[in-house]
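User: Before I run my own analysis I want an independent prediction to cross-check against. Here's the chain; please return only the structure tokens and, at the end, one sentence I can use as a sanity check.
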Amino acid sequence: MSGSGFTGCRGGLGMRVIALGLAAVALLGACGTYDRGPGRIPEGGTPVEEAGSDASGEASWIRLPDAPSSRTEVGATHLDGRIYVAGGIEVGEGSGRVVSTFESFEISTSRWKILPELPEARHHAAVAALDGTIYVIGGFSDMAFTPSSSVFAFDPGADRWRRAPNLPEPIGAGGAAALGDKIYFVGGVDSSGKASARLYSFDGATWRRLRDMPTPREHLAVAATSSFLYVLGGRHPITDAAERYDPESDSWEALPPKPTARGGIAGAGVGGRFACAVGGEDDRRTYADAECFDEISGAWLTLPQMSVARHGLGAAGTEKYLYTVAGGDRPGLAQTAVAESISVG
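Assistant: Structure tokens:
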């Protein structure tokens, strides 16, 4: 979940609004291109004003071809016109199986591709892109939710994986985003089973401990704009806390609370300006909410709800669009292959 190259300004705080969001899942296949049909193409295709607007002209979610694999608790990011989705849990007969599945969605053609599997199966891993490389960070290695410190790096040009320097400690259900020349990894569950407040930066070679965030949490949304790292929502306990980190000063700032308190959400930056959090669950149900903090106005924007409510989904952003994929459509072990996108701002 990486921010893009928009040159924004550092906005102040402001009014609050709300949003809703969904994503989905599918079936497994062998290596190669996986065609779910033409679908609808939001970028490089039909303008969203024509293909993804309701009667009032408001942007709406565009349903994309389902992913090849149906799964939940995935990680996702955007790189060079593709959305990459890694790991997760495959659900069957009331139980789950950790998978090493790795797939990409090419935005311009609206087609999925099955890629070489992760070196090891992971779920609840954080995924981010830096310098043309996809990084899959931490996560849980089994259904006992054992946190991992492993970091895997994928080179799209060579179509292969390598091991990258481990996290300083095992952490699952954390979040990551790229900002500037570094990836930032924050929160999650440590080996003691407690929610973490620790923040690390990674330049592709070395991990560095930075200032802890104010609110420890896991199953959180992490997003980057052109200026800040945002941490939105999360759980233990479920929270609406919204905080952002300034890498220039190594300091945190509290923002107006997220409009809804959710855990099991996903985050992504859009256009270098918007920090978005989508989906999630609480003890009662799964949600389709999509909410974005506008760095310029200091306001929370509420997007239309996703077509499918989900938790454990992946999210990724581009210059204009927010994408969601996979996740569970009900609390607990559930899975989908749903993929959707919406124009933000």
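Sanity check: Residues 1-56 have pLDDT under 50 and may be disordered.
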